[in-house]
Predict the structure.
Amino acid sequence: MKRIVSVMVLMFAQTGAFADEWRMQGEGELLFQPTWEGEALPGRFGEFDVRLATDDQNLAGAVLEVSVNLESADMDDPDINEAIAGAEWFAMSDHPIATYTSDSIKKTGDGTYLASGHLKLKGARLPVEVPFRWSKKGDRAEMSGEVVVDRTRFDVGSGEWESGDTIGTEVSVSFNVMLERQ
C-alpha cells in the first residue's frame, strides 16, 4: 500500500502544477453496502488513502486520488470475507488495489462538488462521478459523500451472482475523511 501511495505522490510531485496538497489524516471511513435479498449487508475497507491536489481554493481544477487496499475489506463475517476475495468477486490476488482518479471537479452548490473521473477495479477502468461535501477550516478539511456503483460494470459478482436476483447489482459506497493541507 505504501508503495502505491508513494508512486502517486511522485507522479504529482513531478507535475508541479498544484499549490496545495491535502492528505488524509487518521483512519477515516470508507463503507460499502450491497444488498442480500433486499436487505442491507454493510462492509468497510480498513486501508485506503485520499489525496486532493489543487491550485484553486474552490477546488476547480483539483485532482482527487483515492487508493483502496481491497484485501482490507471486512463484512464482519469470515465466510463472506473469504468469498469476496475470490475470482467471482474482487479477485484480490490478481487485483489487490482499487483506485479512483478524478479528471475534473466542479462546484454544484454551497460546499458541494462533483468529481468526474475513473474507477479502476478488478482490471476495469470506467467513468464514475462522485458527489461530495467539502468543509474547510484553516489547514484542515472534512470530505464526505456517497455514490452508488453498479458492481456488474466491473465484473464484481460474476457467474451465478451476476443477475442481481440474490445480491443487488447496485452497491452504495460512502466515505468520510479528514484531510490536512501539506
About this structure: The domain at 2-181 is CATH 2.40.128.110 (Lipocalin). The longest strand covers residues 20-33. The two ends are 20 Å apart (CA to CA).
